[in-house]
Amino acid sequence: MATSQSADPTTPDDKPLLTIKPRRSWLPSHPKELWSFRELGVRFAARDVTLRYRQTLLGAVWVILVPLLGAGILSFVFGGVANLQGPPGIPYFVFTLAGMVAWTAFSQVTTRSSSVLVGNSQMVGKVYFPRLLLPISTVLSTFVDVAVSLALLIVLLGISGVRPGLGVITFPMWFLLIIALALGIGLASGALMVRYRDIQYILPVGIQFLLFASPVAYTLASVPASAQTLYELNPLTGLLEGMRWSLIGTERPDNWVLIWAGVCSVVVLVIGTVVFTRMEREFADVI
Amino acid sequence: MSSDVAIRVEDLGKSYTIRHQQSDHVTLAQVALERAKHPLRRNQKEDFWALREVGFEVNQGEVLGLIGRNGAGKSTLLKLLTRITAPSTGRIDLWGRVGSLLEVGTGFHPELTGRENIYLNGSILGMSRKEIDRQFDAIVEFAGVEKFLDTPVKRYSSGMYVRLAFAVAAHLETEILLLDEVLAVGDGDFQQKCFQKVNSLSSSGRSVILVSHNMGSISTFTDRAAYLEAGRLVTVGPTDAVVAEYLERGGATANQVDVSSRRRDDPAHGREARILRVSMEHGLVAGDDDIRVRVVARASEPLGPLRIGQSIRGADGTAVGTSFSEAAVRLEPGVETGVDLVIDQPRLAPGHYQLTVSLGIGNEAAAVRDYDVVYDAVHFEVAPTVTADGIVTSWHRVWGAMRFDPPRILSADVDTLGR
User: Fold this and answer.
1) How close, in Å, is residue A285 to chain B by CA atoms?
2) Which of the two residues, A17 and B407, has the higher pLDDT score?
3) Read out DSSP for B102-141?
4) CB–CB of A117/A131 below 8 Å?
5) Which band of pLDDT confidence, cut at 50, 70 and 90, is reported for residue B390?
6) At what angle do helices A235-248 and A92-119 cross, to 10 degrees?
7) Which residues touch B15 (CB under 8 Å, ≥6 apart)?
8) What is the pLDDT of residues A141-152, one digit of tens each?
9) How far is the C-alpha of A247 from the C-alpha of A95, rounded, in Å?
10) Are strands A18-20 and B89-94 parallel, antiparallel or unpaired?
11) Per residue in B321-366, pLDDT tens?
12) What distance in Å separates the CA atoms of residue B391 and residue A20, rounded to the nearest whole number?
């Protein structure tokens, strides 16, 4: 602490602990500070998880039930009603659940990280903490959902005898890229949502659209050849196919698709962070 | 006690951009529509300086009082000191961590238990897990909620809730604490505890900035005070001198508010007759003074005779009282009619109040119909009385909003009636 006695007691020679000045910058200035607040980030995430199933009858059972129901519905619609063919040798439900792992990570992080500022407006207007902490904490709380879906998938893989190949070691990379893409979108739209609440309504529609416009519950192979290139431009396509390749050993997409998806994710994350940083200083004034 | 500086503020300013528009365009569609309709018109922008050229220092172990009327910039200054919002000009140097108690229970979640909320709220305020662990028992004891630690706070009484929230914040171990006195809530005992806490903080070398409308507490707890008005620092210095200047200047400042375009709660209000301006001769009323209000209204058709109703609410929103004038106001179309009213010695306790004005017919004896109601039209303050010896009297919140005449003692002798 800066309390050392100086010769002239009224003018401290020692540097202040903190100086507050007008500042407009492009990048978060205090990665160190963010780290020093990590405990609060974890606590926000823990609160999210605790609250999600409080005062529910089934409690934590929902954590398991939700992905099962989701995958069940998608398998029924695409595999049953639309009668699409999954990759050979893999039950359609297993195929869908693998897609759901990726999709849950993407959609949950996007939705939660974008709405977390407005949802905690009281806190944003009344206390200081690095604002980035809120969206980042939603990533942590999403880990729980993803981990559960992943555990379910592993059980099903065991039962159905499907084996992932060596590609399984690349799973963390796909996962991180999906989170990067989702967080990038969430940061930008969350910052914009503080001023324009319209985003609140646009975003869910966009996510819904992506669920059907990305190969979550069907393979890229079942997309008409004329639309393939268009599909491959969607970064989610590469990430979904890549993650599924690593998890259940489906066909690996072209390299350029994967690289494109990876580059897109990183770029989106950088843009999202810049937008967020540019706007964060006025959050408390307009929220 | 060390006289090292803990807070130094230099040339601090905060401006907001006000966009002059017909209404607030808060959705993208509205903004786009407005642009499409008037492609060439730029929104008229104007900078509003909520705070300008403010500079002062606070030493370690010092309690500085911050006074000023509503809108003077006190909250803005606190928000800058706590980094909730960023300054537009100037700088703040801080020699220590800042803890703030500007709003109790920020981040409290009704579904979480008392224990969970202590940890969550503590982290939000900047305490580490270790610090909270160490202070946990003290916090619980301070709040007096031992039995309800594992109950969701939504089942707490409002008193318990506030006590717990205050207790967490009061155990912040930061070197600098910002405190809004409105928060020292609860019963007299608890208030006492809160102020003891402030005293012990400063004697242990911590610096405190105390914001209050209560000149009594400012005089009791602070050695120096800063007086803000309209975003500028009027004076900073020994508390007694600053409070005296505040009372003097505040008493001389007229308090006129244009309410003609203010949105009414009931859309039917303000049509046939509309209140345009409400003014009080002084923004600061001495404790024993009459309250003088001028109401200017206009009607679209001949109306009358009408009465004017005046309701006073405390700073926390609780109603204090209402009075109706006699029905003697006649309005002619297109003519602005000004009515001067006097409320004789309402005997309000020192503090902050809001005046609601209504224009209509009826009162407690006859059916009420209002043509216009302007809620909280003007804010005003009732100053504490100063004794002949120059002591600023203090008034405890729990004593209420009314300062009754002293009761007369009829007799005082050995009690025989109760036996």
Assistant:
1) 7
2) B407
3) SSTTTT--TTSBHHHHHHHHHHHTT--HHHHHHHHHHHHH
4) yes
5) low
6) 130
7) B47, B48, B49, B50, B52, B88, B89
8) 999 889 988 999
9) 10
10) antiparallel
11) 999 999 999 999 988 999 999 988 888 888 878 889 999 998 888 8
12) 38
Q: What is the Cα–Cα distance from A18 to B252, expressed in whole angstroms?
A: 40
- Three-class SS of B332-363: CECCCEEEEEEECCCCECCEEEEEEEEEEEEE
Collapsing DSSP states into helix, strand and coil, what is residue B410?
coil
- Distances in Å between the alpha carbon of B365 and those of B307, B362, B372? 13, 7, 19
Q: Which two tokens stand for residue A68?
A: 């099962």
CATH of B255-385+393-399, one of 2.60.40.1610, 3.30.70.20, 1.20.140.10, 2.70.50.60: 2.70.50.60
Residues 6+ apart with CB under 8 A from B8: A16, B57, B92, B93
Does residue A125 sit at the B interface (CB-CB below 8 Å)?
A: yes
Residue type present at position A114? S
What is the edge-to-edge ordering of all strands in the sheet holding B232-238? B98-101, B176-180, B207-211, B63-67, B224-229, B232-238
Closest partner residue to A21 (CB to CB) among B31, B91, B102 is B91
In this complex, the residue of A39, A122, A198 whose CB is nearest that of residue B106 is A122
Q: Which CATH architecture has domain B5-251?
A: 3-Layer(aba) Sandwich (3.40)
Q: Which of A18, A22, A123 sits opposite B107 (nearest CB)?
A: A123
Instruction: Classify B101 as helix, strand or coil.
Output: strand
- Other CB atoms within a 10 A radius of the CB of residue B418 amount to 4
Distance CA A187, CA A191 (A): 6
Q: What is the DSSP letter of B95?
A: S
Which residue of chain B has the CA closest to A193?
A: B27
Beta bridge partners of B309: B324, B358
Contact indicator for B119, B164 with CB cutoff of 8 Å: no
To test the contact with chain B by mutation, choose from A6, A11, A17, A201 the residue with the greatest count of B C-beta atoms within 10 A, namely: A17
User: Is any Cβ of chain B less than 8 angstroms from the Cβ of A32?
Assistant: no
Contact residues, B window 224-283, toward A, CB-based 8 Å cutoff: none
Residues of chain B with Cβ-Cβ distance to A196 below 8 Å are 26-28, 31
Tokens matching residue B226? 């800063």
Q: Where are the domains of chain B?
A: 5-251, 255-385+393-399
Segments making up each domain of chain A, as ranges: 39-286
Q: How far is CA B413 from CA B323, B407, B409, B417, B419, in A?
A: 40, 17, 11, 11, 14
Supply the angle between the helices A92-119 and A199-213 in degrees, to the nearest 10: 170
Cβ atoms within 10 Å, residue B195: 16
The secondary structure element, H or E, covering residue B265 is: none
Cβ pair A205, A134 in contact under 8 A: no
Contacts of A68 (CB under 8 A, 6+ apart): A152
- Would you say residue A9 has pLDDT above 70? no
CB B359 within 8 A of CB B297: yes
- How many other CB atoms are there within 10 angstroms of residue B353's CB atom? 22
For residue B17, the cross-strand partners are: B47
**pLDDT confidence band for B240 (50 / 70 / 90):** confident
Tell me the pairing of strands B366-383 and B337-343. Answer: unpaired
What are the tens digits of pLDDT across the range A227-282?
Answer: 888 888 999 999 999 999 999 988 888 889 999 999 999 999 999 999 998 888 77
3-state secondary structure labels for all residues of B143-208: HCCHHHCCCEHHHCCHHHHHHHHHHHHHCCCCCEEEEEHHHCCCCHHHHHHHHHHHHHHHHCCCEE
Task: Test B2 with A39 for CB contact under 8 angstroms.
Answer: no
